[in-house]
Amino acid sequence: MKIKKLISFLESVAPPSYQESYDNSGLLVGNPEVHIKGVLISLDSTEAIVEEAIAKKCNVIVAHHPIIFKGLKRITGKTYIERVIIKAIKNDIAIYAIHTNLDNVFRNGVNAKIAEKLGLSNTRILAPKSGLKKLSTYVPSGYSEKVRQALFTAGAGDVSGFEHLSHASLGVGTENGGAASTEVKLEVLFQPALKAQVINALNSSHPNSKVPYEISQIDNTNTLVGSGIIGTVTKPLYEIPFLRKVAKTMNTPCIRYTRLRRKKVQTVAICGGAGSFLLPMAIAQKADLFITGDYKYHEFFDADDKIVIADIGHYESEQYTIDLLFELITEKFSNFAAYCTEVDTNPVHYLC
To answer: CA 104 to CA 229: how far, in whole Å?
Structure first.
């Protein structure tokens, strides 16, 4: 199986269009036409990870964090980034990064995995993005159901917690001054990343060779795409017992937190990695606790006794992304070996 088939699958889970503007997800090193020998899954791409891939006879590394963020003017081996690239190329190892696009998807995303580990229920995106698309098309009445089902198969109609959502209205259509005929105006919403396959489904199922349709962007929030997750705990605990549970679950020796409010934790907001930008949304949605990483000293004051901020560390908050990717890849493919890294790439160490 070629690398491009693995990429196609990963990008069906987390489309590249969902990554943030500053990000650099995708195939960073390697040829997508090469056949896969083995896949190593990691949070970061370091020299030790490349060495592990060589030892395990893997020619693909799937990492969460991109090894290349900024433009490189030269590759001489002076920095660890350059050395990783050189070593990967010398050993014919491809490096694929799936970063903020995996952060931003609700289903099978980074934050959904954290929520699962912490036992949260009734979860939803904390800060949904806008920009859903709407397809409007006209179909002869006898073909409307065929077209509708083709659009559903392509993923249209699955938005905001609904499946196979559509609207149809009966009307009269004319063409080139000919006789009027009964037509159905069919409308469906869809995720922006599905545009190409939705149009292909429409063209292949519609009886006319020239298909009339219109695609427009709407302002409705896209509840399946966005930053962070918020949910409720099954058994509310007071803050310190709950933080101890978080520390144990997330394998962290240290949690930095703000002043306690002396109340039980019922609603929890989370964001893997650096999520301080989501604090206003967590407060607005009445979360009792906000779990994330990379909080700066002055940012802790923003809790303002309205919420408890718990900084569990960047690596610690995202570590289960490795398990998530392993599960996704091994459930889909069985014709190559996949491994979770045994290397701890966390650059932060603690003296407790």
So the answer is: 10
Listed in sequence order, the residues at least 6 apart from 209 whose beta carbon sits closer than 8 Å to its beta carbon are none
Q: List, for residues 162-177, the tens digit of each pLDDT value.
A: 789 999 999 888 877 6
Contact assessment for residue 61 and residue 96, using Cβ atoms and an 8 Å cutoff: yes
Q: How many CB atoms lie within 10 A of CB 193?
A: 20
212 contact partners, CB below 8 Å, separation of at least 6:
137, 138
CATH, range 3-99+320-340: 3.40.1390.30
Chain region(s) in the chain for CATH 3.40.1390.30: 3-99+320-340, 110-127+225-311
Q: Could you tell me which residues are beta bridge partners of residue 127?
A: 227
Q: Where in the chain is the domain with CATH 3.30.70.120?
A: 132-218
Does domain 132-218 correspond to CATH entry 3.30.70.120?
Answer: yes
Question: What's the whole-model pTM score?
Answer: 0.87
Give the closest residue to 95 by CA, choosing from 48, 22, 54, 45.
45
Tens-digit pLDDT profile for residues 113-141? 999 999 999 999 999 998 889 999 999 98
Q: What are phi and psi of 171, to 5 degrees?
A: -155, -170
d(CA 68, CA 186): 44
Pairing assessment for the beta strands 26-29 and 94-97 based on DSSP bridges: antiparallel
Q: Which two tokens stand for residue 45?
A: 């791409």
Which residues have a Cβ under 8 Å from the Cβ of 173 and sit 6 or more positions away? 138, 180, 181, 182, 183
**Would you say 67 and 48 are in contact if contact means Cβ atoms under 8 Å apart?**
no
Q: In the CATH hierarchy, which fold is given to the domain comprising 110-127+225-311?
A: 3.40.1390
3-state secondary structure 44-108: CCCHHHHHHHHHCCCCEEEECCCCCCCCCCCCCCCCHHHHHHHHHHHCCCEEEECCHHHHCECCC
Q: Give the separation between CA 194 and CA 202, rounded to whole angstroms.
A: 12
β-pairing, 38-42 vs 337-340, is: parallel
User: CA 102, CA 270: separation in Å to the nearest integer?
Assistant: 15
Report the C-alpha gap between 4 and 32 in whole angstroms. 5
